[in-house]
Every structure is written in C-alpha cells, then in structure tokens.
Amino acid sequence: MSVFPRISLKPDVTEYLKSVFLNKEVLAAVGQQEAECRFQKLLTCLSHPPSYTCVRASTHLAALEEIRRQLGEELKKQQMCSSSPEDLQILPHPRITDVLLLPVDGPRPVQQLSSEVVVGAQCGSAVLRGAHVFAPGILGSPKYMKTGDMVSVFSDLEGRCTRGATSFQGKKVFLGNGVAEMDRSTIFCTGEPPRGIGVRMVAPLYQSPSFDGVLPSLAFLQNLPSVVVGHVLGPRPGERILDMCAAPGGKTCHIAALMGDQGEVVALDRIRNKIDRIRQNAQMLRLQSIKAFCFNSTQAVSSDPAQQTEGPPFLPDSFDRVLLDAPCSGLGQRPNMATTWSLKEICSYQPLQRKLFHTAVQLLKKGGVLVYSTCTVTLAENEEQVAWALDTFPCLTLQPQEPHIGAEGMLGAGLSPEQLRLLQRFSPELSWDQTQTTTAFPGRADSDTIGFFIAKFLKN
C-alpha cells in the first residue's frame, strides 16, 4: 500500500531518470506501457522503506543461532517498554549464512494528533527504518512542548522548515506518533547543540525495532545488497584485499570477518573522521586484520619500485581482491522522499568512478577479483560502466556471482544477454505490487530492497 507521495525530484532529474528506464532497448523488450509502469513504481517505492530490516550477524564471534537468540531477548526488553508490543520474528536468510531478517510492519493505521513535530528528511528516513527521533534532527515543535507530551512526527519534504519553527505549513508527510523526551527549550534554546532522543516513537507508521545500542558487536544493521557484496567478493583467509572507498566500514569489517580475520584488509577513504569510524567499528567487532588509511584512492598507485611503506600509495599488482564500492548518486537508497540534487550533481559521478576503476585494475594482481558496486539506479553509473570497463581493460572478464538473489542487469548499455545475466541489479520496482501483498519469504526480502548494483570481474 502506498501512503507517501512519490519521491520528490527536480523536474530535469525526473526526465533524465525516465529516459533511462524508457530507453530504446527496454522499450523494444517490454513495450512502452510496461516500461512506464516500472518507472512510476520506482518513484513510488523509493519513498517507502523496504519490507525487511536486515541484520548482518558477527558469525566470526558467535554462532548465528546464538546471535538470533540474544537479539530476540534484547528486542523483547525493548518491546516491554513499548505501549504496543508486537509478535517478534527474526528469520535467518536461507542462502546467506550471516544474515537475520526482521519483517517491517506497515503502513499501520495511526491517528494524527494536533501537536506536530517537524524533522528533516534524513531524520525522517531513519524514523521509517525504526529509529527514534534524535534531537539534532528536529526542526520545529509546538510552542509549549514539554517532556511527556504526545506528538505527531512529520518529515519536511522540501527542506523549507526553519529551525525553531512553532508551526509549518509546507510540504510534509506523517511518520507516526511519539512521546517528547525533551522540552522545546532544551532542543532550541540552549547554547550547546542538543543530543540524545528528542521524541521516542511509540506508534510509528512503519514498525521495526530500534537498534540503538542493541548488541553492537554481534548485530550490525546493513542493507541486504550490501551484505551480498562481501560474499560476491569471496575473500579467503591469508589474502590481501583493498576496500577503496571504505567508510563507514560495514563492508570492510564484513570482508575481514569472512576471511576469519586472517590476512590483511586495507581500507582507504579521503575523510579523516570517517577513517576513525572504520577503526572504531573494527575494534568493536574485534577484527585485527583491518588497516585503515586516510587517502585519495584515485592516487593509490605508486610508480616508485622502491616503495616500502605499509600504507598507500601501493605498487601495481599488490592485491588479491579489490572492492570498489564507488561514490555514486545514491538514487537507490530507501526510504528517500526527496532529493534536492541538480541533474549536474546526479551526473557528476561517472568520471570519478572511471578514475577509481583505472586504479583498481592496476592494483589488482593477475588472476585477482574486482567487485564494482553502487547504491544507485542509473545506467551511466552501472551497466554503462561495465560496458566501458570491458572495452577499456581487455584483461577483465565478467564472472558469475554467488549468491545471486537480485535481478539481472538492465537493458540499455549495449551488453549481451549473457553479460546482463552475470550482473546483479536489485530492482525493487520490478516486484513492487507483489511485495505489498502476495510474495512469500524470502522472495519478498530479496526483491523489496534498496536499489543496488554489483558487477564481478576477473583480471586475466
């Protein structure tokens, strides 16, 4: 059931995306009506959360069943504090051995209240995925809001609510009801930026558990396609692996765990505090094999054969496997009710991705594996990059992926049917109607995900 408007995009961005999903190859294959229908479903499903919360279990620290048991106990404690305890399901994924899935209940019938709290779009997306409202995300609240007041929470769709507003008439959507944990004055009138929970959600439109502080070393919130990437890369104990754009480190830590923490995982990112986050995550998950460096990956190849340093830049042919989880336009992220980016910004990533690709191929050993992934839905950043890479680097060949639970690649980049079958594109719009009603587990969990793309290459 659709309760939110379609994702709000700038008109030229909508037209650009429409031209992608109604390209000549797609129209020839499925026809105008079906292509148009898929595009409209994409715009609708992007504003809604996926139907399952995915947890990557730290199976290098404990058995999956033990983590499932502990998680169940922790979440039951959380529910005892809730006004509406639910039946809790925690389901192991039948094909991915370190994944637990929790069904999301929604949209639920929740009555709107007269007292309204307005939050930013990013905060609103987090609330739809089970988070409480943290104080820094609050933009507006009733003039006399006090701790303990019941309030309705709304997300500002266009970024127009002024911080500190007492009312807001702009475009907004209802997310559910909660209890204020702070007075208005604490949120807006102190010198220090507010911290902690501002509104505790008690009747959200989409019900899923809050994972704030829940088993931080054993249960790691991660989108299902992001977990699949680590398995597709297929790391083995003793290998040296490069994660080129690693922050915040979820995939880095997964790679190290899959290797049994035996070998070396080098993580690079350009932003210093993101490197600190990767190190914190590695420490929390008790992973010793990760070495994180603040470095621009486009410059990570050294031309000096006498290079002896532990960190970047590295000599060519230095790594057994490389993960290029590339910076991208992020148009597959869900829920996302509004993107204010211009078409120029949306289209700015392809050149950077190609620079990173050049580096990745040089750093990869012969016989090594390169996995390229994005969390976007455009052809330019996905299938077109694969076509370009195969043309630019004759040493690369596409490889089958395991597990392959997403759809195949999208038509429109001139790739052959065999090549498209080797790609993995998570396309929630293809099953948006079914996921709302009839599709059984795990099909629903595998198809109703964020939009995501994975390609796996071998360097011959």
CATH topology of the largest domain: Rossmann fold
Q: Give the count of helical stretches.
A: 15
Poorly predicted regions: none
CATH superfamily of the largest domain: Vaccinia Virus protein VP39
Distance linking N and C termini? 48 Å
Write a short abstract of this structure:
The chain has 460 residues and is an alpha/beta fold. Helices cover 30% and strands 21% of the residues. Strands 11, 12, 13, 14, 15, 16, 17 and 18 form an eight-stranded mixed beta sheet that branches.
Provide an overview of this structure.
This protein has 460 residues and is α/β, with parallel strands linked by helices. It has two domains: 89 residues, Archaeosine Trna-guanine Transglycosylase, Chain: A, domain 4, CATH 2.30.130; 237 residues, Vaccinia Virus protein VP39 (Rossmann fold, 3-Layer(aba) Sandwich). Strands 11, 12, 13, 14, 15, 16, 17 and 18 form an eight-stranded mixed sheet that branches. A six-stranded mixed sheet has the order 5-9-8-7-4-6, covered by helices on one side. A four-stranded antiparallel sheet has the order 2-3-1-10, covered by helices on one side. Helix 2 crosses helix 3 and helix 7 packs across helix 8. The longest helix has 17 residues. The relative contact order is 0.14.
